[in-house]
């Protein structure tokens, strides 16, 4: 099987629109969020047109249909991520999933003297919750640095730091550099030292079939919108042992068993952590995104994105004034190229590119400590996905060259 990119593109209605006065849209901001195929849009519309009701409560026909579709989405996604429905908690995305680990598991199980090991490559979503928890519980946060030349984690420091740690929280794939970390090595060493381990798979799930059981992590966090699903939905995958050790972080309707004016008891399993009316249409859309992705070979998808990143990085690295960060497209990266021009401000460059139809990201990418390590406050970032073509990469390179000639 090989990817038929032209046919894939036809599944994404937004890709045929124009921007900036009639320019074809070249969408290169996929690490921020991916576009949605028609089947995902249709699944959500169908739910609203035909089955919209609240779940888990009423006995009428629509409520039964909504409940059935919401829980079927959990089954589809659990299967896609190599786990069971009892180990999949719906969240609004990776941010909420990490907060659930921090406030649901760590707050109940860690205390003064415990160490949480994170890395300099983390997204703010995997830094800030730990800082807030550290203030409350006097836990220590230990940080593994990045080797800036290669854009990889300093694994010597990791191994020297992991011995007395209670929880290891590491990003699978960097949203800034595209680096894929040695997750198997990290999980094995963490387990050996007796630590629990959480892997932030926000950028990995769009590129790899996550196999939660096979990975042997305690927690995995995922965002649906980065893998062709809707915004506002993601999940936390957690082992049954960890789920049993977790306390609710949000509370209210749906997650309870019995409430009196004196006290409440809670449901068990994922339901205990899904308070209030859930994200019903979003869960249905997320499951449809997994079904859409399942038509394609994830290995080929990943190789395709990596090839575009490698070609782009090699082509722009030699342009005057351009610095490319890390080694995009090398090893097992994820189709991301972060770069800067030495005299055209990142935001100006992004506006010039937008005027040519190219959507690329600018800023600190919610990873300020990583950018600090490189001594910069922002980068330009292009990130490829399954529907991007070599023609688009070449058009991007040519337009960048043109901008540099004119303004550099
Ligand atoms: C590596 C990584 N972690 C966490 C997040 C946060 O994800 P979300 O905003 O979907 O909660 C992102 C989003 O860009 C990310 O790239």
Structural description of this entry:
The protein is an alpha/beta fold and 408 residues long. The protein folds into 2 domains: 5-30 and 297-407, Aspartate Aminotransferase, domain 1 (Alpha-Beta Complex); 41-293, Type I PLP-dependent aspartate aminotransferase-like (Major domain) (Aspartate Aminotransferase, domain 2, 3-Layer(aba) Sandwich). It contains 14 helices and 19 strands. The chain has helices spanning 5-10, 38-51, 61-80, 94-109, 128-137, 155-161, 183-192, 212-215, 240-245, 280-293, 298-317, 346-355, 368-373, 390-407, and strands spanning 18-19, 23-24, 26-27, 88-91, 115-119, 140-144, 146-147, 152-153, 167-171, 196-200, 219-223, 234-238, 256-259, 264-266, 322-325, 336-341, 358-359, 361-363, 379-383. It has a 7-stranded mixed beta sheet with strand order 4-12-11-10-9-5-6, with helices on both faces. Strands 15-16-19-18 form a 4-stranded antiparallel beta sheet, with helices on one face. The chain has a two-stranded antiparallel sheet with strand order 1-2. A hairpin with a 4-residue loop joins strand 7 and strand 8 (152-153). The protein is globular. The relative contact order is 0.17. The structure holds pyridoxal-5'-phosphate. Pyridoxal-5'-phosphate binds next to helix 4.
């Amino acid at each position: 099987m090989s990817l038929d990119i032209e046919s894939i593109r036809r599944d994404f209605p937004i890709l045929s629109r124009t921007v900036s006065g009639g320019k074809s849209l070249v969408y290169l901001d996929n690490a921020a969020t991916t576009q949605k195929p028609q089947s995902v849009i249709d699944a959500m519309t169908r739910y609203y047109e035909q089955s919209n009701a609240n779940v888990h409560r009423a006995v009428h026909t629509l409520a039964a249909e909504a409940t059935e579709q919401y829980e079927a989405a959990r089954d589809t996604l659990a299967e896609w991520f190599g786990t069971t429905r009892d180990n999949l908690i719906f969240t609004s995305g990776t941010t909420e999933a990490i907060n659930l680990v921090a406030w649901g598991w760590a707050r109940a199980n860690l205390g003064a003297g415990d160490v949480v090991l994170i890395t300099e490559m983390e997204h703010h979503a995997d830094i800030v919750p730990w800082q807030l928890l550290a203030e409350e519980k006097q836990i220590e946060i230990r940080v593994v640095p990045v080797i800036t030349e290669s854009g990889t984690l300093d694994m010597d420091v990791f191994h020297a730091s992991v011995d007395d740690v209670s929880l290891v929280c590491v990003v699978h794939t960097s949203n800034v550099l595209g680096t894929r970390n040695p997750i198997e090595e990290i999980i094995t060493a963490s387990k050996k030292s007796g630590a629990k381990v959480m892997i932030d798979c926000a950028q990995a799930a769009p590129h790899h079939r996550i196999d939660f059981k096979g990975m042997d992590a305690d927690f995995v966090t995922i965002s649906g919108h980065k893998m062709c699903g809707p915004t506002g939905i993601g999940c936390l995958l957690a082992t049954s042992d960890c789920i049993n050790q977790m306390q609710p972080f949000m509370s209210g309707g749906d997650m309870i068993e019995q409430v009196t004016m004196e006290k409440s008891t809670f449901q068990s399993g994922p339901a205990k952590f899904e308070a209030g009316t859930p994200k019903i249409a979003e869960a249905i859309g997320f499951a449809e995104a997994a079904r859409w992705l399942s038509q394609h070979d994830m290995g080929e998808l990943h190789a395709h994105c990596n090839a575009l990143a490698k070609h782009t990085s090699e082509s722009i690295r030699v342009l005057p004034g351009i610095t490319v960060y890390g080694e995009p497209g090398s090893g097992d990266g994820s189709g991301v190229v972060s770069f800067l021009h030495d005299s055209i401000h990142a935001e100006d460059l992004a506006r010039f590119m937008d005027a040519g139809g190219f959507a690329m990201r600018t800023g600190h990418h919610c990873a300020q400590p990583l950018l600090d390590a490189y001594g910069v406050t922002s980068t330009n970032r292009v990130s490829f996905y399954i529907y991007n073509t070599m023609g688009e990469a070449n058009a991007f390179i040519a337009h960048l060259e043109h901008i540099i000639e004119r303004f550099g």
